[in-house]
Amino acid sequence: MANLRYLTSGESHGPALTVILEGMPAGVPVSSEKINIQLWRRQQGYGRGGRMSIEKDEVQILSGIRFGQTLGSPITLQVHNKDWVSWQEEMAIEGKFGKLKRVVTKPRPGHADLVGGMKYNHRDLRNILERASARETTVRVACGALVRQLLEALGVPLTSYVKSIGRVKVSAEPPAFDKLVARCEKSPVRTFDAKAELAMIKIIDQARKSGNSLGGVIEVLAFNLPPGLGSYVQWDRKLDGKLAQALMSIQAIKGVEIGLGFEAARLLGSEVHDSLYYNSKEKKYVRKSNGAGGLEGSMTNGEPLVLRAAMKPISTLYKPLDSVDIESKQAYKASIERSDVCAVPAAAVIAENVVAITLADAFLEKFGGDSLLELKKNLKGYLKQVQNF
Fold first, then answer.
1. Is pLDDT at 52 greater than 70 in this prediction?
2. pTM, whole model, 2 decimals?
C-alpha cells in the first residue's frame, strides 16, 4: 500500500476541485504561495485556450496544516472554479434534469465521451467529459506542489522542459539545472532551445488557424536522489512501474520513456548500459553516462532521474471530426468544447508534480518516519551506510 495516498474530486465546471492527501509526515514546512506558483505555472504556455483567462487558480487549505507545518493528519486542498458562476444551471447539484442548452450527445473521437457514456449509462455525455477533463489535474498539481515541499526539505529538486511539439524537436541536450530552469520558465513553450521555440510557436499558430490541435514530448528531471528508492523484489514495488503509471495517468499521455527509452531497443548493449567506476576521493560509485535514466533494477541508482512522456493532440478540435449522435444515430460532426490548441507546456508542469508525489512516496517507503525530523535521521543514517559500501 502506498505511504502517500490521495483522491481528487470535482467536475470541470462544478463549484470546486478538491484533493485529500494522507500520509504526509508531521513538521514539513508548507507555503500556500508555493502551491499557487505551481498552479500558475500549469496555466501558462502558448496554445492554451480561453478558460485560462477566466480561472486564476489559488489553493485553499482546509485541513492538516497548522501555523505553516503539516500535522501528520489528512490534508485537504481545494481550488474553486470561477467559471462555475456561468454553469450553475447546467451543472446544478440538486433539482431535476430539465431543458438544458449544453447537453452533449455527439461524442468527440479520442475522448472518454462515448465509452464513458456506455459504461455509466449516461445519455448526456457532459456527465463524462466534466470529470474526464484535464481540469482535474489542477488539484493533482496542488497536491504535488505541497508534496514537493517535503522533497525540497530533503534536498531533491525537480524540473521539466518540452522536448518536442508536433514534428519540431529541440536540437541539443538540456543545459545544467540552473540554466535549464531559468530558460524554460521564461519560454512560452517551456523549452530551452530558442530556435525550436520559434518553430513550435509557428506550428501552434498554424494548428489554431486550421482548427486542429498538437501534442508533443516532455522530459522531467529530478536530482540528488539516493540510491535504493524502490525495489526489485515485487512487481508493485518497482519504482519505474510506479513512475510510468503516474505519468500515464495524466490525461492525453500515451507513452512513457526512462533514460534512453525506446532508443535502447535500437542499440547494442555496450551502447546502452552505464559502466561503473569508483571515486576513492568522494568514496562513491560513479557512472560517466546515464542511459539508464537514474533507475537500475527498478531502483534509483544515484544518477539524475530522466523521464519522458508523449502527449497526444487534444481530442477537441475546432474543425471537428466525424461522429454520431447517440440519440438519433445520425452522422454529425463531433461536439466542440472550449479547449486548448496545445497543452504540452502545461503537461510538463503537471508531470513534474505527479512525479514529485511518487518520489516522496518512495522516500517514505524506504525511510519511514511520522515526522520530518525522524525521516531526515533515517535518511542520514542510510547515506552514511551507503558511503561505506
1. no
2. 0.95
User: How far is the C-alpha of 68 from the C-alpha of 25, rounded, in Å?
Assistant: 13
How long a stretch of residues is the chain?
A: 389
What helix, strand, coil percent values describe the chain, rounded to 5?
A: 35, 20, 40
- Give dist(CA 2, CA 226) in Å, integer: 19
Alpha-carbon distance 62 to 384, whole Å?
Answer: 39
Side-chain-side CA neighbours of residue 40 (13 Å):
7
Q: pLDDT at position 140, please?
A: 98
Predicted local confidence at residue 65, as pLDDT: 98
| Residue among 23, 17, 86 at smallest CA distance from 50 | 86
Q: In what order do the strands lie in the sheet with 253-258?
A: 168-169, 158-165, 216-222, 305-311, 253-258
Q: What is the pLDDT of residue 241?
A: 98
Q: Are 274 and 291 in contact (CB under 8 A)?
A: yes
Q: Is 178 exposed, middle or buried (0-12, 13-18, 19+ CB in 10 A)?
A: exposed
CB 83 within 8 A of CB 54: yes
Question: What backbone torsions phi and psi does residue 357 show, to the nearest 5 degrees?
Answer: -65, -45
Q: Between vectors from CA 349 to CA 200 and to CA 357, what angle results, nearest 5°?
A: 155
Q: Cβ of 119: how many Cβ atoms within 10 Å?
A: 10
Neighbouring CB atoms inside 10 A of 244's CB total 19
Of 91-95, 195-199, 305-309, 329-333, the one with minimum mean pLDDT is 91-95
Cβ-in-10-Å burial (0-12, 13-18, 19+) of 113 comes to buried
Angle, helices 32-42 vs 137-153, to 10°: value is: 130
